Amino acid sequence: MQNLFEEIKVPQEELENIVNEKLDMIRNHSRKKKRTRVLCSFTAAAACIAGLVVFSVSNPVLAAQLPLIGHLFSQVEDKQPYYRDMDETKVQTIPQTEESENLVDGIKISLSEIYCNTEAMYMTVLLESKEGFPDYLTQPESDSVDYFIANAEQTFDFAEGAMIFPLQFSGQYIDEHTFAGSTRIDFSMGYGNGDMDWSFPDAVPESFHWNMKITDIYTYYDISQAPDKTYALDGPWTFEADVAARQTEKIVKEVNDYGPGGLGITTAEKGEFEIILNYAYDESNAAYEYESVQSVVLDADGKYMLDKVGMLPIGDFNVSKIHVYYFPVTSEDDYVAIQKKLTVGEPADFIKEIAIHHTEIDFGS
What we know:
Blueprint: H1 2-8, H2 12-32, E1 53-54, H3 60-65, H4 72-76, E2 92-93, H5 99-102, E3 103-104, E4 107-116, E5 120-129, H6 135-138, E6 147-156, E7 163-173, E8 178-186, E9 207-219, E10 231-244, E11 251-258, E12 261-270, E13 274-286, E14 293-299, E15 304-305, E16 311-313, E17 321-328, H7 332-342, H8 347-354, E18 357-362
Antiparallel strand pairs: 1-8, 2-4, 3-4, 4-5, 5-8, 6-7, 6-9, 7-8, 9-10, 11-12, 12-13, 13-16, 14-15, 14-17, 17-18
């Protein structure tokens, strides 16, 4: 790949400027575009296999160079529900397979970068179509989706059997030929093949060999109108890599506290990049004098943390402790108005005035 760029003599500075311009266009457009999202129902943590963001440019030379430019993890982190401030020195480049091994019926899937700790693996992904993706997926004026679901089977040389679990590649189209994204493989999720149960060992080693076979990928055009698959492709696409796992610690706190609506938190898990709140519903704690009860999370300094279905990106928040406030909502307009107030000024004083229940979770320093 590098020889190609040397032969064409594409100016590196100009190339990076163009890519950065395209990325800015994505960010600006994504704030305006109506998004369709898929939520998994296994658990709150399972819902967070949401994914990775992928980028592309119309020039095929730029599209080919993209994985090598600007560190994709840092470029796409503001699109993700999980990682922030990833240590770039720990990011690995995944060796590319032969063209025939990851190009199936005109669809090429490339895994560009990988980061691993003892909780999960994070990967950047490129999907390239020779013929181009359908217009209803890529045209900005349409309600095109921004994710692919990949049915995947994975093996790890330190664990018996295969881990089977769908991955969600969350991302964006730049043109009709390329989709770019990222995904998170949670080591606590997955199930076995056939009659064999699957679970990870208690410890993830510092290094291991990993294989993945993607059997098929699919996405939806408008899930509200067409719940069936609207765009599906069969593989398989195969990948493997020697992975270095950063040894990190996870703090797990027992909470078992419920708000007056019956919704509560059983446990809270603080990892390297995210906090996972495991929600549950208890009928005995439901108070029916409220039509609807919602919750909001603030960090130790009173800053609003966006709760993405139980996953809170840590980023630059002070998470020595977090506060969960429950408040009543009388209508959809009421809820929207409250959400707007949370994103401006100091939300702590405002939310304390309307809260009917408060849960504090202390993770220590």
